[in-house]
Design brief:
The complex is a heterotrimer of chains A (about 290), B (about 400) and C (about 650). With about 400 residues, chain B is of the alpha/beta class. Chain B has 16 helices and 15 strands. Chain C is of the alpha+beta class. In chain C, strand 1 and strand 2 form a beta hairpin. The chains are: A mainly alpha (about 290), B alpha/beta (about 400), C alpha+beta (about 650).
């Protein structure tokens, strides 16, 4: 494939300016979190300006830079509580949620995309509808069904099922939309060559849908990664808690230890960034991935 | 072949044992306690639990910490379905709601003998009494008091006149310095003013709201006066007060024990009683007190043991650990005679302050007061509505919610 | 496959549907009979309890007088297991088997008697609360079914108009009532089936005739059945009223004779006031002389029967529907469809099942709740007792008071449903527009080939998604503080005025919007990045060859190709943003004055601040309905469910 498309590209300098600005706005609040985390204090950010501030004093006030650097918050977060253990619990739950979620939604989305059958529209709609009922009053019925009826209280399996089921509707819709863009001719050719439905799905369709699978993986992971209220309600042992539950011990109620919370937030963001770094190769291959004729 | 079968049998047996076949060791009674503590408080209650288990053979007290933000929901979901703990520790504000909902909190009136009753600061026991029945034992209390920066204030003010004078001297609005800072737009903090005038949310002994009682309006009037003196920062919030105090930009603040852990190490602070109000005939400011009670779950199977533990927790040994190691202010009166506790300026300051404190209402109906009261406070604090009109509006709002709730 | 005979299908349908209806009707009839019998039993016991209470009250309510009154009364009252009178921690009188000798009353209550003490406290509170609220909300007469089958009842002991203790009565279990016979219900199936056999012979395979005949036969049979059932239940209810009246007469004479033998003044209590509801309000079905007040009784019978009649009608309609479905071959076709499309259903079933487990029960629960007046005061009662029909919906949708006229203009009532809905829609549209535009734009730029530092930008740009939004949302709120917020500092650096962000609905909305846009664009960006990978490169190549401009290529190739992956993300983010509770709650908290509330935060407040669960559930259902309408229209427009 011809790579000499540079002449057609936009000039890079304005793009960098644009991206630089966007990144600055995006990162700025995050830098405050970092600054609070490393300040060794518990205070949320406020601009600290003297009376009649000069421009430079104002500038200093709006730059997220702690007065002194300290890792005390991180040390406390990791040693006060079994935070490492909780992060590990989160990782286990999130990984299995992702695997289960992707598996279930891939199969369902494939059927929605490729088969014509009565109830297809209704089925698709039912996934969408499931996202519409507001969750204000659903904690107690969920508790009844998961803990009382199914007996899945205080178990990772219960959380995995709940999170996977929560992430499925988006994943199904996303994957179905993506599968639709993959030409059917490829599969038809394979059928002529005698490939089974399973083979076609795993060997032909799925590899082509990698970007969508990467997105749904990230989405499923995040669904379970930051969830707090269900994990705190369903788990009855401290060593079963997940990281978001652990984080919330620092705030809430009367006392607000934002320094600890910020430090903990940074710790729990790292796995997400790592996952994204891993998945982004599926999202960046530029225009080449479109060559489905391969 | 035979040996393989034997092995299989042994494995099955082991599995059966693991799966909870009755063992002699499991004959002990387990008392499960839920709380929302962290750090020192958590360590303290775990220590009390261990001490109780050690001195009571056959009983094992275990604890579970639940984040505060999920705690009430978790109790409401789990306890009425028999899946919860034997004991849970929570502030009195949700008590009425759980009692009205039923099958959550066990009344302990029956257990409560005179010596136990007399052990508490009376108002803390009132806080866990709902419509004439005691539902838990008060573990500790929290009250707002005056905390000041010793560098800026040498003698804390005793009267509102002194307070305003001192605060005015220390205020430089343009520089973001304030003599006095507290979350005055929050009803909980404001209640100290209102109560000094004899104000109240509900008519005594009933669930009849009186948000616009003349005394309440007087409290709001005084707040407006303070705001107009220019001694208070705009748009107050806990985060703002913390930041101001830690930067040395707030000389005096009204806040409670929860704040102490957030004070920056370089700030030298002192605690003093809230001032008396000249405007209220020199009556002291009377903050609301929040009392954490230890309640027995209604479906608990070990209520007697659970009560015995709660009694232990609030008795001298338990209270001493909770005070000295958990940094709580126990409701137990006698503990303040303990030399170590008596020598602690912080515990002493709160003990003095609680004498004039008023239990925050524990009625279920209180939850429908907060929203209208918050709007009332915001509009008064921003000077957009006169106090009387704002209070009337809040009262009408609460009455409307109540009548809709009670409609047949 | 040969088509099975219409005749057989209708016959099978008739038998199955008739069987179902008969089974349901039998269940309803048994329930109604049990309820009527139990109500009668409870009322008779309450009469006895109230009678003895009046005797104890006239004896002074304590000491030997009370004990003698209990003994004298129990001697003449059959079916009583025990009677206890308690005041505070004191057991004043007791006829319980164990309470003799050393254990005899008066004495302090023992540990096992804690329930008695708690009950007394509860009832005293109930009396005070009802009086204070001038209504009936909490049970003053408590009735509880014991495991033995008997009843345990308690009523307040009043002295000088104030509750000082309770009288608790335990009755012996009644012999079980004969169960409802099955034969009328069996006949209701067999007779129409037999008749249909005749029709089959005459009508042959004519479908219309068969359908009409089967429907008619089943309907007629069920009609006759329900008439009979209703009549029988009405009769039993009348008998129950008569037995209560008889109990009133018995007790009146018992109290009279006991008063005489104990030397007490004649009781002032009116026997008509013994037959009371749980709030001690006379039911009025029995007159003071112990005769039945027929008008009131007939009204009660009507009530009872109407309830049953409605259930039976529902069962009959269900049966007729089933009959037609089977008769016309719907199930047959359904079975075939499943068989033909087996593979597709197998692929979908696990995901659907998982979702259903999670959604179905809360959903049904929410909808059911929305038709009730469930609130904090009545959570222990069955939902059927709290039924209010569409009242909650009427209250929500029928409130048009979104502005109030005051002197000098209008004041908006921000808490009104329609105002909140308007804001909610505005909030959703702006958020999704900004989120999608910025996400897509960034993705397009990031997709630029050979742009340096791309991976760095990408990772930094997803950080808002990766961080827990609990803290970042509050950082944003802090940045909007009027004096110490960074935004206002920046404004002042460039010479602008500081803004009081949360003082005005619009600026408050802007603060929330900024925060939410910041939080949500990374997701859209990632989705767009993925969607861009689905565009075949040769399309651009072809466009270039055709001499299309970059803009033309974007319009003709990029946008249409992005659609399949982007549309689901847009639809779902509309749904999520519509219900974006956290951001509103954390950033504006509705400020100022509730003007930036959205529907879900309102529903939350109704449930957890005003304790009106039924009303909040109706709010949720309305939200759901709005989104559903949106979903259906959007789907019709975008055809996203099509292959």
């Amino acid at each position: 494939m011809a790579r000499s498309r540079r002449d057609q590209e936009l000039p890079h300098a304005p793009l960098h300016v644009f991206l630089g600005l966007a990144t600055l706005v995006t990162v700025y609040p995050v830098l405050w979190v970092v600054s609070i985390a490393f300040s060794g204090r518990q205070t949320l950010a406020i601009a600290d300006v003297p009376s009649d501030p000069t421009f430079l004093q104002r500038l200093r006030a709006v730059v997220p830079w702690p007065q002194q650097w300290s890792t005390a918050n991180f040390t406390s977060v990791m040693t006060d509580q079994p935070f490492g253990r909780w992060v590990l619990n989160s990782v286990v739950v999130a990984i299995f949620t992702t695997l289960l979620g992707i598996f279930l939604s891939c199969t369902a989305a494939y059927a929605f995309s490729r088969f014509k059958f009565p109830g297809r529209r209704a089925g698709m709609m039912s996934f969408l509808i499931s996202q519409m009922f507001p969750g204000v009053l659903t904690l107690i019925p969920l508790y009844i069904i998961m803990v009382q009826v199914l007996g899945l209280g205080n178990s990772r399996l219960g959380m995995i099922i709940v999170y996977a089921a929560t992430s499925i509707p988006f994943s199904v819709w996303m994957l179905k939309g993506y599968f639709d863009t993959i030409p059917k001719e490829l599969e038809e050719a394979a059928i002529i060559e005698g490939a089974s439905a399973g083979t076609i799905f795993w060997r032909i369709v799925l590899p082509l849908a990698k970007p969508a699978v990467a997105i749904t993986a990230l989405f499923s992971f995040m669904t379970s990664w930051n969830e707090f209220i269900l994990a705190a309600t369903f788990m009855d042992k401290e060593d079963m808690y997940t990281a978001p539950v652990g984080l919330r011990f620092f705030v809430g109620g009367f006392s607000q230890q934002w320094g600890y919370f910020a430090a903990g937030s940074i710790i729990v963001s790292i796995p997400v960034v790592v996952l994204f770094l891993y998945l982004q190769k599926y999202l960046v291959s530029g225009l080449t991935a479109g060559s489905v004729k391969g | 072949m035979q040996s393989r079968l034997d092995r299989l049998f042994a494995v099955l047996l082991a599995l059966a044992v693991l799966a909870g076949a009755p063992l002699p060791a499991s004959a002990e009674t387990e008392v499960l306690v839920w709380h929302a503590y962290r750090a020192a408080e958590k360590a303290a209650i775990e220590k009390v639990a261990a001490a109780y288990s050690a001195s009571h053979p056959g009983v094992k007290v275990t604890t579970l910490a639940v984040p505060y933000d999920a705690f009430a929901d978790k109790i409401s979901a789990a306890v009425p379905r028999g899946k919860g703990p034997d004991v849970f520790i929570y502030a009195q504000d949700r008590l009425g709601g759980w009692i009205e909902a039923g099958n959550t909190v066990e009344p302990v009136d029956f257990f409560l003998d005179k010596p136990t009753r007399d052990r508490f600061i009376p108002s803390t026991l009132d806080a866990v009494t709902y419509k004439g029945t005691v539902y838990g034992l008060p573990v500790n209390y929290k009250v707002i008091t005056l905390i000041y920066n010793k560098k800026l204030v040498t003698t804390p003010p005793r009267t509102s006149t002194e307070l305003v004078a001192t605060a005015k001297k220390l205020t430089d609005k343009a520089a973001g310095r304030f003599g006095l800072a507290y979350w005055y737009s929050d009803y909980y903090y404001h209640a100290a003013l209102q109560n000094a005038f004899g104000g109240r949310v509900f008519e005594k002994g009933t669930a009849k709201p009186v948000l616009n009682a003349p005394e309440n309006v007087k409290g709001l009037d005084l707040l407006v006066k303070w705001i107009d003196e220019g001694i208070l920062p705009a748009e107050p919030s806990t985060a703002l007060i913390t930041a101001l105090f830690n930067q040395g930009k707030a000389a005096m603040i009204f806040t409670g024990p929860w704040f102490l852990g957030e004070i920056a190490p370089e700030i030298d602070y002192g605690l003093a009683q809230l001032p008396t109000l000249a405007e209220a005939g020199n009556a002291p400011m009377r903050p609301w007190m929040t009392v954490e009670g230890a309640y027995i779950a209604a479906p608990s199977k070990n209520k007697d043991v659970a009560y015995d533990f709660v009694k232990y927790l609030t008795d001298r040994d338990g209270a001493r650990i909770m005070a000295l190691e958990g940094r709580q202010s126990p409701s137990n009166k006698a503990i303040y005679d303990d030399p170590k506790v008596a020598a602690d300026p912080v515990l002493k300051a709160f003990r003095t302050q609680v004498e004039v404190a008023v239990p925050m209402p524990n009625l279920a109906e209180m939850t429908m007061v907060w929203s209208p009261a918050t709007i009332m406070m915001a509009s008064v604090a921003k000077r957009s509505t006169p106090p009387k009109a704002a209070a009337d509006k809040a009262q009408a709002e609460v009455l409307k919610s109540l009548s809709e709730l009670r409609r047949k | 496959m040969t088509a099975p005979s219409h005749r057989l299908r209708f016959l099978a349908g008739l038998v199955l549907a008739g069987g179902l209806a008969a089974w349901l009707a039998h269940g309803f009839a048994s329930d109604a009979r049990r309820r009527v019998a139990a109500d009668g039993e409870v009322r008779r016991a309450v009469v006895a309890l109230r009678a003895v209470t009046s005797l104890v009250e006239s004896s002074g309510g304590e000491g030997d007088g009370a004990r003698r009154a209990v003994v004298a009364w129990q001697a003449g009252a059959p079916g009583v297991v025990q009677l206890r009178v308690a005041r505070g921690m004191q057991l004043e009188a007791s006829s319980a088997a164990g309470d003799a000798g050393g254990q005899a009353a008066p004495r302090r209550l023992a540990r096992e008697e804690k329930p008695l003490y708690d009950r007394a406290q509860r009832i005293a509170t109930a009396v005070r609360t009802n009086r204070e609220e001038q209504g009936g909300r909490k049970d003053e007469v408590e009735v509880e079914r014991l495991p033995s089958g008997g009843l345990s009842l308690a009523a307040p002991l009043d002295l000088d108009g104030a509750p000082v203790g309770i009288v608790e009565l335990e009755t012996a279990p009644l012999p079980p009532a004969p169960s409802t016979p099955w034969w009328p219900f069996l006949l209701a199936v067999l007779v129409p089936a037999a008749a249909f056999g005749l029709v089959m012979l005459l009508a042959g395979q004519r479908r219309a005739v068969l359908a009409v005949a089967a429907t008619f036969l089943l309907a007629a049979s069920l009609f006759v059945l329900s008439r009979g059932t209703v009549a029988r239940i009405g009769e039993e209810r009348r008998q129950a009223a008569a037995s209560v009246a008889e109990r009133v007469r018995e007790q009146a004479s018992l109290v009279r004779s006991a008063s005489v033998s104990l030397g007490l003044p004649a009781s002032a209590a009116d026997p008509a006031g013994w037959d009371v509801d749980p709030f001690r309000r006379p039911r009025g079905e029995v007159a003071s002389d112990g005769s039945v007040v027929e008008t009131r009784r007939e009204a009660a019978v009507e009530e009872e029967v109407r309830h049953l009649g409605r259930s039976l009608l529902a069962a009959a309609l269900l049966a007729l529907a089933l009959l037609l479905l089977i008769g016309l071959g719907a199930f047959h076709r359904l079975g075939r469809t499943i068989k033909v499309n087996r593979q597709a259903y197998v692929y979908i079933a696990p995901a659907l099942l998982g979702m259903m487990v999670l959604v179905f029960y809360p959903f049904t629960y929410g909808i059911t709740l929305s038709f009730t007046d469930s609130n904090i005061y009545n959570t222990q009662k069955p939902l059927a007792d709290l039924w209010v029909g569409l009242r909650n919906y009427g209250d929500i949708l029928g409130d048009f008071a979104f502005a109030k006229k005051v002197e000098g203009g209008f004041v908006f009532n921000y808490l009104n449903f329609y105002w909140t809905l308007l804001f909610n829609v505005f909030w959703t549209v702006t958020n999704v527009t900004i989120g999608v535009t910025s996400g897509l734009l960034l993705a397009l730029v990031l997709n630029t080939r050979a742009l340096a530092l791309r991976p760095v930008y990408r990772v930094l740009l997803i950080l808002p998604w990766a961080m827990p939004n609990y803290i970042t949302a509050l950082i944003w709120k802090g940045m909007f503080h009027q004096q110490f917020g960074i935004i206002n500092q920046l404004f002042q650096m460039v010479g602008l005025q500081a803004v009081n962000w949360f003082d005005h609905p619009f600026t408050s909305f802007l603060a929330a919007l900024t925060t939410n846009a910041w939080l949500s664009f990374p997701f859209m960006m990632v989705v767009s990045l993925g969607a861009l990978q689905s565009i075949p490169a040769d399309l651009y190549e072809a466009a270039r060859v055709d001499g299309a401009s970059r803009w033309q290529a974007f319009r003709a190739i990029t946008l249409p190709s992005l659609r399949p992956a982007l549309v689901p993300a847009v639809i779902l983010s509309v749904v999520w943003t519509f219900n974006m509770f956290n951001i509103i709650y954390l950033v504006t908290a509705g400020d100022p004055g509730g003007s930036t509330e959205i529907l879900i935060t309102q529903a939350y407040k109704f449930a957890f601040e005003r304790y009106r669960y039924g009303y909040a559930a109706a709010y949720s259902v309305v939200i759901f309905g709005i989104l559903l309408v949106y979903g259906v229209f959007q789907n019709r427009y975008s055809k996203a469910t099509e292959a």
